[in-house]
Amino acid sequence: MKQGIQSVIIWFVGIFLTVVLFFVMAFVxxxxxxxxxxxxxxxxxxxxxxxxxxxxxPYWDVKVEGLENIDHSKTYVAIxxxxxxxxxxxxYKTKMQFKWVAKESLFKVPVLGWNMSLAKHIxxxxxxxxxxxxxxxxxxxxxxxxxxxxxxxEGTRSxxxxxxxxxxxAFKLAIKEKVPVLPILIQGTRDAIPxxxxxxxxxxxxxxxxxxxxxxxxxxxxxFNRLRDFARAQISNNQ
Length: 239
What we know:
Elements: H1 2-31, H2 40-55, E1 60-65, E2 77-80, H3 86-91, E3 98-103, H4 104-107, H5 112-118, E4 122-124, H6 129-144, E5 148-151, H7 169-177, E6 181-187, E7 204-210, H8 224-237
Parallel strand pairs: 1-7, 2-5, 2-6, 3-4, 3-5
Antiparallel strand pairs: 6-7
């Protein structure tokens, strides 16, 4: 009974905070549009939202390490393993300015998708070659404007604790645009959101670790697979 009541409260508070976030983001994006074309201030509203959602969930114990590896004056191609939708909430704990590369279906989710559109995140239609080309063009555009881009190079959420194989695109982009790759490890989120149920029943330890950036200056375009494997090893070795 107690878990049921707590779960209802958690979902209500989470949805309420996400709705509030939408109105705050909409207000900021409209009022500051002439001064915030990159939507940095709009994006920054997600920082308090992430802190509130994680702090108010008694089933989540969140620890963050490695924030000193982020130089906020630099631009990165950030990569992370992917276990759950909770990864979206947790990534904002880094307090980085970035654009997600996210599947188009997420943009269709009420409120959450609206927030993603307001922040000008990047839509990907899976299996559509023209969409993939558009994604990398848009990602390069943001990198050149000084905004980092976040990829989940596994391509989809992992169904187990094993790290999946990485796709090549993020690493080709980093070499082409001459920006560092920033590996980020997320652990514990696979069970953070209940599957097949609305009830939270288990306390989960969630760990986010920002690893040292990988300089791409010495990598040639043909070296993307070497960069990919090295970045994957950095995340795998810290699991």
